[in-house]
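I have been asked to look over a protein record a colleague put together. The record follows directly below this note.
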Amino acid sequence: MHDPNRIITETLVENGHRLTAARCAIIETLITSGGHISADELANRVRQDAPQIGRMTVYRTLDLLCELGLIRPIYQGTGAAHYILLHAGSHHHLVCNQCNKVIEFDECTTHELGQQLSRQFNFQITSHLLEFHGLCADCMPFKT
């Protein structure tokens, strides 16, 4: 299993960014949240343990982690962006159109598709976010 903390901190250092105490606290809180959290929620949680860390520091850190391809903002009908960790460069969801339930899954069979798209469009793919939208078992009108 990949250690997200190690991956994030190594990527920051490899790209010439400092590992400040504030960044470490933000990264740890992001990871322990399960990686699905809004910027405001993250800022509130970080400030519970480290009240000296300002909201702008949280927002700048989120921007930096996005820029480095370690997290992505997603919008699933909740208004605010939620940030997700990209474990091993990918992330996958099933999203219910009725109740907005999100089911994560790790299985990824898109490697061939990624290679095909890379060749077809002369595009280097570095990560992906895959979402399927539909109805969860609780929202299906006729359950089988």
Observations:
- Strands lie at 37-38, 71-74, 82-85, 90-96, 102-104, 128-134.
- The mean pLDDT is 84.
- The CA atoms of residues 3 and 121 lie 32 Å apart.
